[in-house]
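Class, study these two lines:
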Amino acid sequence: MARGTVAPLPPRSPALSSSPLDRLAVASQYLLPKKLLTQLAGRAAQARLGDATHAVIRRFVARYGVDMSEAANPDITSYGTFNEFFTRPLRPGARPLAEADYICPVDGAISQFGAIERDQIFQAKGHAYSTTALLAGDTRLAAEFEHGQFATLYLSPKDYHRIHMPCAGRLQRMVYVPGDLFSVNPVTARGVPGLFARNERVVCLFDTARGPLVLVLVGATIVGSMATVWHGVVNPSRPGEIQRHDYAGQAVELDKGAEMGRFLLGSTVVLLWPNGTLRFNPDWAPARAVRMGEAMGKALG
């Protein structure tokens, strides 16, 4: 396959999930106007509606059990828009960084992690997807991660939604990849083939002391947009075509634990490492809750 072309994806049909309700939830997503719903949600999240905005935030906090004591500003009435609340910074010291070679970049839950074999990344029981497809058809880049490692981390609505660097790195390039806007919750991950290589995403390639690192921000239904600290909002208009940004000649350098981006209404992060780069924290397991700054892995070699 030529570099820059998009790898083929699995057939677009709902797969069997674990229960009739799960199958219904997945099947309904094929029928919903996901892009329209996401655009409307994005506009609503940016609207300044005073008391109405604060009422929505209070309801959200109560519904999902958001711990506002961790926020730099716990006063709900100080947030002018829902997006300001959703991307709120944490108070200093809320997420101490572990003494580890690699730290967890987000708050959330482990979806899956493990080895990349034969260009395949494990998604859920019965499902895998192509590394090449995830990386927008870049076969040369995908080959660098053959026999490497991946981690997929899911951010739920209650979680802190800024994304941080697992190690120090220098940005080489960023690629916006248009795609579907399926939900990325665990039920959908079990039911939609090739989910993370199908949805809209932003692929960020970093050069680190131990080789390349890819960090992918995966969009989803209702995710208004994704932003990085060096670019701002990446997908404000969803142009429908791949957009490539080269930063190799620029000094975009981020320390371990530094913020690199954020979701304006949560989603999933996928990380890729080459073979022989790290050994995961032995306490990690699928579905385990994680917090930004905790030990993720130890460098090999």
Summary: The radius of gyration is 18 Å. The chain has eight helices and 18 strands.
